[in-house]
């Protein structure tokens, strides 16, 4: 029989579970932060990752709107109750990014983006084609997918930034909500006269990327 007396501290230490690796804890935190983001933001983040990672096969699948591919299904799962809208926004994203190696989150509403359509004669309201296009879009009772595709293709051809993909998804989800008045706000954004804040304050860059010392 042993006369050894156990140290209470040793037993307590042995009973404690080993701490989780820091990497696992960080992954859990990242996952929780991802899950807390609105569905439209998660859709946009996933889509831009496809471009960044050169997932050209999935982007090509998304450009086939009449065929339900795995890429379409995955896009729809970000908001199963609005599956059609999310799949179609993914299609528009893929159309815009055909042949592009850098993704664009875009900015502003579709009305803001339509102001950027045009060329040497003028842009937005000063471009007859852009004006006719926005008139057709905002007059539609149903979501005007064909005209939206045309708008995205024109932005791509003009080498102009697209609308915010996350906002586009949110706006189209509320297209038939009379209180939201999405089409009306798009028309207002399109026809609002440009101001210094509109022309200089909107870009894909954040304040952290602006070089210091540019303002004297």
Can you give a write-up of this model?
This protein has helices spanning 8-15, 22-36, 39-52, 56-62, 70-76, 83-96, 110-114, 128-138, 145-157, 165-173, 182-191, 196-201. The chain is mostly helical. The chain is globular. Mean pLDDT is 83; it is low at 10-16 and 199-216.
Put the structure in a nutshell.
With about 220 residues, this protein is an all-alpha fold. The chain has helices at about 10-15, 20-35, 40-50, 55-60, 70-75, 85-95, 110-115, 130-140, 145-155, 165-175, 180-190, 195-200.
Topology diagram in text:
Blueprint: H1 8-15, H2 22-36, H3 39-52, H4 56-62, H5 70-76, H6 83-96, H7 110-114, H8 128-138, H9 145-157, H10 165-173, H11 182-191, H12 196-201
Tag the structure with descriptive keywords.
single chain, globular, 216 residues, disordered C terminus
H/E element string? HHHHHHHHHHHH
**Helical element count?**
12
How far from one another are the termini?
86 Å
Shape, per Cα inertia axes: globular
Report the average pLDDT across residues. 83
Question: Largest beta sheet, briefly?
Answer: none
Quaternary arrangement of the chains shown? single chain
Helix content percent band: 55-70%
Poorly predicted sequence stretches spanning 5 or more consecutive residues: 10-16, 199-216
The fraction of residues in strands falls at under 5%
* Radius of gyration, whole Å: 24 Å
